[in-house]
Structures are given as C-alpha cells and as structure tokens.
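Title: Prediction job returns without error message
Component: structure pipeline
Severity: low
Priority: P3
Assignee: unassigned

Description:
Job completed but the reporter wants confirmation the result is attached to the right record. Sequence as submitted:
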Amino acid sequence: ALPPDDFVTLLAASTRMTTVRMDALRAATPLFDWVSFTDCSQRHCVLVRQGDGKPMLVLDDPFDATLQEA
C-alpha cells in the first residue's frame, strides 16, 4: 500500500489536478473578499492567493458533484 501523501499525489496526477501540501496552504492568503468564509465553509473549498500572486481554488473533494455544479 502507498503512504497517504503518495496516494494523493498519484490520484491528483491521474485527474490532471495539483496537490496542495498543508505548508503551502498555510503560506497562501485566503481571498475571503472574493469568496466569503461562509461559502467556503459550506462548499468545503477555499480560494487563495499563492506566493506568485495567482489565485488558486483548493477543494477538499474534487469529486463532489455539488461543488462542480456551483
């Protein structure tokens, strides 16, 4: 069996998504003026600004059909 981090990385690669490690997420700036904290909490996602200034949407479950429809 794969260690959890390796499994998540492999799964992300198979779906052409990028994984975000907790240290990178902690270093990013949440954009709650773009998507409110309440909406992020309800939808289990967060929009953040990365170190390079680009926004990135982080999902806790990319297979969540309700989030894909939002």
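Comment from assignee: result matches the submitted record. The longest helix spans residues 4-14.
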